[in-house]
Write a structure and sequence with these properties.
Two copies of one chain form a homodimer. By secondary structure, chain A is mainly α. Chain A has a single domain, classed as Orthogonal Bundle (Arc Repressor Mutant, subunit A), CATH 1.10.10. Helices cover 65% and strands 8% of the residues of chain A. The first copy, chain A, has seven helices and three strands. Chain A has a three-stranded antiparallel sheet. Chain A is globular. The first copy, chain A, binds a DNA duplex (30 and 30 nucleotides) through helix 2, helix 3 and helix 5.
Chain lengths: 157, 157
Amino acid sequence: MRSNVAKKQLESKTASSAASRPYRIEDQIGYLLRRAHQRASAIFQTGIGDPNITPTQYSSLAKLDEYTELSQNLLGRLVGMDKATMQGVVRRLKERGLVDSRPDPGDARRTLLSLTTEGQRLINRLLVNGPAVSRETLKPLNAQEQKQLLDLLSRII
Amino acid sequence: MRSNVAKKQLESKTASSAASRPYRIEDQIGYLLRRAHQRASAIFQTGIGDPNITPTQYSSLAKLDEYTELSQNLLGRLVGMDKATMQGVVRRLKERGLVDSRPDPGDARRTLLSLTTEGQRLINRLLVNGPAVSRETLKPLNAQEQKQLLDLLSRII
DNA sequence: GTGTCATCGTACGTACACGAACGATATGGG
DNA sequence: CCCATATCGTTCGTGTACGTACGATGACAC
């Protein structure tokens, strides 16, 4: 009841200014990002070619393919993951024999990660499907809009 | 080694067509959505006014404020959450005394959810901060770009 | 060399997110 | 009325995601 009064007051107040519309959850950037990320993950899972590989695992394997050898911490920074999160991702990849680790000879705090032969073989295969997954996710937009969306997203990160 | 050969072949192949650039993880829509969602969540957590309320809990409380009473399943559809995920969110909100439930008199499968007095008071307070959180998240973009991003995101959901 | 401070990896707790399986209930066709 | 089918909510398992705290190591000042 108190809220209804408050809401009505807010509505009449904002209705007068054309620029600000009423606050709706569905129009908020955080909500839209959550939903869009959900859909992208679902498309990834069905299209990447291995249902047991997650988006974060895929990013990690792809970065190791690119750099050959990386410390766990640096890998985390490159793929935008917290070190605590990275720890879990790496542990699972090691358990599956996709990633190997050895102590850094120059810095005893570091663990150097690299792909195993099997991990190399897997990421080579998955990378083929990557473009199709992105294409499917962006399908509702035309080429110019797709480019724009990627640009806008990278600017709010 | 095998991958390096493959990568070079891919590069030289795609370099010839101007439209398709080399495949980089950082430019993929899924990766950008994950990073953008991370940042939005972080801003939400520090700005919404209660560090113990998560974005999904906030959406749920806001929808209950809007509709007064909803079944758990319908609430899940309105905020874009799986029923299994919804179950955990609702359980935590009930444990904290923010949400109440009663059996649907007309359908014994359903549970009707509503805000408690405390839940109503909390969401009224948090909704005040909602616009500032969205504003901060979109800060790197100008007004037209902000509008465009919201439009593009809603179209790929 | 010693103390101070930062960095790296680990461990624990909390909270999404979803697939799969399950039991209870509802609904429509026969 | 009865059965097939669908829906609703729960439970289990796996995997992010992050805050916090911790111990080991490294870097640097003094």
